[in-house]
Amino acid sequence: MIDPAYAKIFARYNRWQNESLFTAAAPLTDAQRREDRGAFFKSVHATLNHLLWADAMWMSRLADVARPATPFPGLDDVADWDVLTRRRVELDERIIGWADGLRAGDLDGDLVWVSGLMGGAVRRPRWIAVAHMFNHQTHHRGQVHALLTGLGARPQDTDLILSTFLTSAA
Questions:
Q1: What is the pLDDT of residue 19?
Q2: How far is CA 147 from the centre of its chain?
Q3: Residue 80 maps to which CATH number?
Q4: Per-residue confidence at 100, pLDDT binned at 50, 70, 90?
Q5: In this structure, is the dihedral angle defined by the CA atoms of residues 165, 68, 28 and 89, taken in order, positive or negative?
Q6: Which of 11, 14, 49, 132 is most buried as measured by Cβ atoms within 10 A of its Cβ?
Q7: In which domain, by residue range, is 52 found?
């Protein structure tokens, strides 16, 4: 089982890694960011869009974030790069605020939601849903990291242990 300290650390890891990816992708052309490079969601832009969509979906289940209007997979919700960047920063701050507000026991019990992807009502332990959200972020950011590297961009290392925020997060 995870605790609020885990969520605080991974909320900050999420922001740190998103800043790295968006900074590395910013100098690329829009065409480069949208190029089908063979990833699951094809491009840097589509994968980052999916991540924003999925994080908003999970936060709508866990906190007071609006549920995305579009169904899975959320690949073209935000067409403009600058808007996508701004919304990513805003959502990362909301995730951190939510994590910072967690107290002992807040991750206990079950979370129940209706999932279009899973075809109905789903019940899972709340802590599993939170761990999944952070794991999902890491999975797709790894894909974006590889896509960016293939495009000649240089995102930061992804190792949590190299982060500078660990002492302030717990």
A1: 97
A2: 17
A3: 1.20.120.450
A4: very high
A5: negative
A6: 11
A7: 4-162
